[in-house]
Design a protein that fits this description.
Rossmann fold; three-stranded parallel beta sheet; 10 helices; globular
Length: 249
């Protein structure tokens, strides 16, 4: 009796670094079929390993490439949500307005992110859909935004005034703010996560100081995954979830 090939059952994730976003400007919006940049790049190594392991096998794989992951997570350094939330809370504690800390280019250019709930649902779809077998998919919310347009709403969530952007390195300016965060935790009776485990300021700098676009197109919706996420509402939802769970004030 012949057996049919099993559907996709192995899913790996990459990101816009697969296109060289960490190196400098590249062709945007990036497509899954774009050529590779000069190595090294561990995403390439992962993909080549999976492709070689799958050859002539009855299982499949899919590769998902998110952009600037956002979700509820503590202790995960690659999380833009925690960068923004802790930065805002510390600024408010110091009686400061909320200033965008990144580059002027990042503040005004089009930007996109990926909701982790959306990515999880995309991974579930990819692991069970024959149309996703051995394919690469960019995965983002499906809309674009500009920080200069969404920044006032972020400030409003934290009950803060907005002031003009002021470019600075969070990895430098926020390094000594642990005692301030401990004060915030004590007064608001937050869950006592260590300051250094909450957020990676270097990751925030890397995302907020780029002067080049990091936009993608995605063929995933042509293959049958049709979900979208409103990014502005996503920020408010995740901030509220962090507040409800006593992670941020």
């Amino acid at each position: 009796m012949s057996s049919r090939p099993r559907p996709t059952c192995s899913t790996s994730t990459a990101g816009v670094e697969a296109y060289g976003a960490h190196l400098g400007p590249y062709k945007t919006p990036a497509k899954e079929s774009d050529l590779r940049h000069l190595p090294p790049n561990f995403y390439f190594d992962q993909e080549d390993f999976v492709r070689a392991a799958q050859r002539s096998k009855d299982w499949g794989f899919s590769i998902l490439r998110p952009n600037s992951p956002c979700g509820f997570a503590v202790g995960n350094p690659m999380n833009l949500i925690m960068v923004l939330a802790v930065y805002a809370a510390v600024c408010k504690e110091l009686g400061l307005p909320l200033r965008f800390p990144g580059s002027p280019e990042t503040y005004s250019m089009l930007y996109e992110v990926t909701d982790m709930g959306l990515l999880a649902r995309a991974a579930t779809w990819a692991a069970t859909s024959p149309r996703a077998r051995n394919e690469v998919f960019n995965v983002s919310n499906g809309d674009y935004f500009r920080w200069e347009q969404i920044w006032p709403r972020i400030a409003a969530f934290f009950g803060m005034e907005v002031a003009p952007p002021q470019t600075l390195r969070l990895s430098e300016r926020m390094a000594d703010k642990g005692p301030i965060w401990e004060r915030i935790v004590a007064r608001h009776r937050l869950r006592p996560y260590p300051y250094k485990e909450l957020v990676s300021w270097g990751y925030g700098d890397g995302r907020l100081h780029r002067h080049w676009e990091t936009l993608m197109t995605s063929k995933i919706r042509r293959h049958g995954f049709l979900e979208f996420v409103d990014t502005e509402e996503m920020f408010m939802r995740i901030f509220q979830d962090l507040r409800d769970k006593k992670v941020i004030p």
